Every structure is written in structure tokens, then in C-alpha cells.
Amino acid sequence: MQPETLLRNIPLFVNLPDEVLAELAKGVRRRRFRSGDIIFHRDDPGSTMYLLESGQVKVYVPTDDGKDIIQIG
User: Fold this and answer.
1) Which residues, other chains included, contact 8 with Cβ-Cβ below 8 Å and sequence gap of 6+?
2) What secondary structure letter does DSSP report for 39?
3) Nearest to 39, CA basis, from 20, 59, 11, 21
4) What pLDDT, in 10s, does the model give residues 36-57?
5) Which of 34, 41, 40, 25 is nearest to 56 (CA)?
6) Is 56 exposed, middle or buried (0-12, 13-18, 19+ CB in 10 A)?
7) How far is the CA of 59 from the CAs of 34, 35, 56, 70, in angstroms?
8) Which residues contact 63 (CB under 8 A, 6 or more apart)?
9) Residue 7 CB-density burial (10 A; 0-12 exposed, 13-18 middle, 19+ buried)
10) pTM of the full structure
11) DSSP state of 9
12) CA-CA distance, 33 to 55, in Å (whole number)?
């Protein structure tokens, strides 16, 4: 899928003018991850936005008592 098409299918970007979307699409970098790969860690600087084209991501958030809250999306 072309970056412009991917972005246009995301509600956050759906109303952007074409020229703005095209400029944003220039920064899109496609990456593949294997099952079990860690994409980022808690407290990493928020300098990247990940858009999921296919598959699932599991997010673990530790609670104060050491248990994990797991969100799959």
C-alpha cells in the first residue's frame, strides 16, 4: 500500500489536504517486525509514530505491584 493511501485510511489524517498528506507521506518508513520483537520501551522519547498496516501489537504496562496490564490491538 502506498504511504498516501495508508495515511488517508486513518481517521486522524482523513481530512488533511492532499498536499499536506503528500508531505507527511514523505516521512513514512515501512518496517517489518517479527513476532516477539520489541518495538519500543516505556519511557522511550516519543519521536516516532507507528502505524500498523497489518498484524497485531501487544502492549505491556507494569502495575505498581509488578503485574502486567496487557493491551492487544
Assistant:
1) 14, 21
2) -
3) 59
4) 899 988 889 988 888 888 898 8
5) 34
6) exposed
7) 15, 13, 10, 6
8) 69
9) buried
10) 0.65
11) T
12) 10
Q: Which three cell numbers stand for residue 63?
A: 502495575
In the structure grid, which three cell numbers stand for residue 20, read together?
A: 499536506
| Distance (Å, whole) CA 70 – CA 67 | 10
Cα R_g (the chain), whole angstroms: 15
For the chain, what's the residue count? 73
Q: Which amino acid is at 45?
A: P
Separation of alpha carbons 24 and 16, rounded Å: 10
**DSSP codes joined into one string, 11-37:** TTTTTS-HHHHHHHHTT-------TT-
